[in-house]
Design a protein that fits this description.
The chain is mainly beta and 292 residues long. It has one domain. Helices cover 11% and strands 43% of the residues. The protein contains 3 helices and 17 strands. The strands form 3 sheets. Strands 4, 5, 7, 8, 9, 13, 14, 16 and 17 form a 9-stranded mixed sheet that branches. It is globular and about 55 Å long. The N terminus is likely disordered.
Length: 292
């Protein structure tokens, strides 16, 4: 099977194995273009929400189990489901010891993808989007830059007299989620090759509440310094853990509680002159479940 090349990701796990939700398909009689437009319009109120992540039906599936993957957009771990819209998907894959395979799904489906766990071990689900344009009024754009630790962009806008000018941006999503089947100990440090990517240097499933996870932030495969990396617990998103990457692109985050964790980071650069935007950004996220 081939990976589908083209899904919207508007900016801005239980230990037991529940049954995965069936994928909802687009009605055959419904015009696909009208359906896609309707989905985008429905998602518009969430477009300014900053975070995007993958939420699997379980983080600890059994061998042979089918796992569904929901794409979520929102803030403070409260998110709306994002359906699968093929024109927005650049990559949507599952990666285990046997290699890569596409996440299966129909246009407009929610959950957006399905995979079968064929063998024990660690398994990544990864999603990278095509660019999405977004324009925000100046105050909202500046607040968003400050929230995501992008002070360098605030400074560049100030130096060029753009502080009071709307922010024209195009953004990309680079999300992944780590699942564990059985006693799994290898594969967590293998990058998926996304443009912006968080790579853990300890197996999250070997950690417990209070443990520390070191991560590297990569941009085009190279370490990126001075990036704000934020970890949020789904049970207590108000008390996020923050650290900036060093010259090696590394940061360590101490995770105080068990459960569902989201680790995220944003990188922004001036957009190419012919892009129709002033800035382009990449939003990396990683989800996993921490034991007690």
């Amino acid at each position: 099977m081939r990976i589908e090349r083209h899904d919207p990701s508007r900016r801005p796990g239980a230990a037991a194995a529940p049954q995965c939700n069936p994928i909802k398909r687009v009605p055959r009689k419904l015009n696909v273009k009208r359906f896609t437009l309707a989905l985008l319009l429905c998602a518009a109120p969430a477009a300014l929400a900053h975070d995007f992540w993958i939420e699997p039906s379980t983080f600890r599936p059994a061998a042979g189990q089918i796992v569904s993957a929901r794409l979520r957009v929102g803030q403070k771990m409260q998110g709306d489901p994002v359906p699968r819209i093929p024109s927005y998907v650049e990559r949507f894959i599952a990666k285990g010891s046997a290699g890569d395979s596409p996440m299966i799904g129909q246009p407009g489906s929610e959950p957006a993808g399905l995979m079968r766990i064929n063998e024990p071990g660690l398994h990544w689900i990864g999603y990278q989007s095509n660019p999405t344009p977004l324009t925000q009024e100046a105050v909202k754009f500046e607040n968003y830059l400050r929230d995501e630790g992008l002070e360098s962009i605030i400074e560049k806008r100030a130096k060029s007299g753009q502080t009071n000018i709307e922010g024209r941006e195009r953004f990309y999503r680079c999300a992944k989620s780590l699942l564990a089947t059985g006693d799994a100990s290898t594969g967590f440090e293998t990058p998926l090759g996304f443009t912006l990517e968080l790579v853990p240097h300890k197996n999250p499933y070997a950690l417990h509440a209070g443990g520390e996870i070191p991560v590297t932030i990569l941009f085009h495969g190279k370490p990126l310094s001075n990036v704000l990396i934020i970890a949020m617990s789904k049970d207590d998103p108000e008390h996020a853990v923050r650290a900036r990457s060093d010259k090696r692109g590394r940061a360590s985050l101490q995770l105080p509680r068990a459960g569902f964790w989201l680790v995220k980071a944003v990188h922004m650069e001036p957009a190419p002159k012919d892009s129709g935007a002033d800035w382009e950004s990449w939003w990396a996220s990683m989800t996993f479940e921490l034991a007690k």
